[in-house]
Amino acid sequence: MTVDTHTGASPVDPSADRPEDADQWSARLRRTAVEALPPQKLLPDRQPAYVASWIYVFGVLTLAALVVVIATGCVLAIFGPTWWHVSTVGLFVNSLHLWSVEVFFFCMVIHLWGKFFMAAWRGRRRATWITGVVCFVVSVGAAFTGYLSQQNFDSQWISTQAKDGINSTGAGAVFNVTNFGQMIMWHIMLLPLCIVVLVGIHVLLVRLRGVVPPFAPPGDSPGGISENDAGHLVGATGRATATDTNPGAVRPDAGTVS
Amino acid sequence: MSGETTRRGRRHFNPDRDVDQWHGKYLPYDLPKEFAIALLAVVILVVGLAVVLSSPDERPVTVKSWSTADPMDFAQTAITELDGTSGTATYGPPYNDVKGSSQSIGPFSPESWAGVHHPIDTAQDYVLGPLQTLPDDPAVAAAVKAYTSASPAQKATWTAAYEKAIASPSATFTDGALRIPPRGVGPVAPIISGLTDMARSGALDGALLSSHQFYGTDYTKPLLFIADGAYLENLATNQNLGGSQWGMMNETGNYPGQAWLWLYTLWYQVPPMNTSASGDLQVWALMMILTLGLALLPFIPGLRSIPRWSRVYRLIWRQHYRDLAE
In chain B, what residues touch A119 (CB-CB under 8 Å)? Predict the structure, then answer.
């Protein structure tokens, strides 16, 4: 057996399953992950022909805007909350942050409406829809705490107005919108972390389930995939098949990151 | 359950829940390239908007700027903090325990269930406490001592007289001092005058911070004090930020603000929420139900059929349906 002279390790394919490792957590986790999302499904180079509309672009535009939001937010975080009030460059970075948030929400709302009119939850894509809605709600919270963290007149007015709604729910006991220190921690730490994790799950679910196909034209007899009571996909015959249970297993029909 | 078939464990195809399997063509689609182009487009758009429109940064109101710009409003607010009739003093949880002040829908009152978590005693925290930190003002110290040692009835008599005096047309702020009809106000006059002087010097801003450590980030007390006055609201109304002006979703200047809060703000403009004492709780309850409905839309018969009924999807997939027709 040859040995790598630099590391002393055997040149063994680390992804190869060995019988003695069948119960090993690492092997099982890898096997499950690769089975669920093989590389050609995780990053496909083909899409069904119906993925041909400008509406699909808004999902990826939302992601791109999120990248700019996070990048500009990181620059603001590096220099601290006072910097942009006293520096021209800081004000410009704050402007980039503000407008990337506006673009982010604009694209996300169009994406959401587009997915609504596609009924994009069909075909076991309900979790994708739900995570998308939760992403939207958490993003509203992240933007809101951003407005509260500006340390200017807007922060003062919005916090003193918003406190009544938050307090009425009882949440004001732990979520004090007039506490700048608390709000900025939510804005730069807790909520961005939630958004990144949720968006990651949302995109992985899109890859897993693929882009929702169009409705059958009126009058066409349905011959597609439905669900039994256990939530498993079954074909028109009622028999679950490999293609049915894993639509991406045969062809890389997983969808765009929309 | 609708659509049940005789076969155990299988349901009929439901077009609002299930999909037709795709047997059509697959075309090249380069996701990383699409993302790179999207990122470039967003960066160009955002840089353009930032260069042309910048971002608003209106200076915050301080107790000093408020009391300097509108000392009469400051004094009128200060007396309500002292006699416990201000918005904060009568707010209830989470700031203080005022019976009947919490919002509720029937027996549902989470505000009162959560209780007091950021206690504020407006007379002590906003007026008497800060004045007791002044080292070299024997007249104010004597007035504070006289006031704090008086009976509740006597205090009420003095503060009521002062409220009437400060609201009278003859009350003015001239030559750097409050001038009011002196009848029956007792030590309240030097107390409010002393507090106004303290505020105009800037000393009250620091004294109101919740934390008396060197570092502090909690501005709850000064913010609520400032919000009790009319000055902040007048500035906001001039900027079209008032509650009846959809203020929550706007920001200063000609900027889009939080436009995504339009639905939340809409409910504050319509009855019964715009007049109800529990309007905030009603709006939040409504928004929570609507948000939950949006998230669970795939499970709600009827609502989940709207996309199919609306036929907007034919616009989205118009090429697909055109291909099918040919």
Answer: 16, 304, 307-308, 313
Locate B224 and state its tokens: 């609520």
The structural domains of chain B, with segments of one domain joined by +, span 63-234, 299-326
> Is omega for the bond preceding B94 within 30 degrees of 0, making it cis?
yes
Give the residue from B233, B260, B266, B303 with the most A CB atoms within 10 Å of its CB, the best one to mutate.
B260
User: Which residue ranges form the domains of chain A, and what is each CATH number?
Assistant: 55-214 (1.20.810.10), 223-248 (no CATH)
The minimal CB distance from A122 to the residues B19, B51, B278 is found for B19
Is the pLDDT confidence value at B269 over 50?
yes
pLDDT: is A238 or B13 the higher one?
Answer: B13
Pairing verdict, β B177-179 and A233-234: unpaired
What is chain B's Cα-based Rg? 30
pLDDT of residue A221: 55
B13 neighbors A226 (Cβ within 8 angstroms)? yes
Report which of B238, B226, B205, B181 is spatially closest to residue B74, judged by C-alpha positions: B226
Which residue would you say has higher pLDDT here, B36 or A21? B36
Instruction: Say whether pTM exceeds 0.90.
Output: no
Residues of chain B positioned with their CB less than 8 A from the CB of A114: 316
Query: Is B245's pLDDT higher than 80?
Result: no
Residues B69 and B181: their CA atoms lie apart, in Å, by 22
Cβ of B247 within 8 Å of Cβ of A161? The answer is yes
Q: Point out the residue among A123, A169, A227 whose CB comes nearest to the CB of B281.
A: A169
User: Which chain B residues are Cβ-neighbours of A205 within 8 angstroms?
Assistant: none
Specify the higher pLDDT residue, A145 or B5. Answer: A145
Residues in chain B within 8 Å Cβ distance of A220: 20
pLDDT digits (tens, 9 = 90+) for B112-136: 999 999 999 999 999 999 999 888 8
Contact flag B251-A147 (C-beta cutoff 8 Å): yes
Contact across the interface for A169 and B110, Cβ inside 8 Å: yes
Write down the pLDDT at residue B10. 63
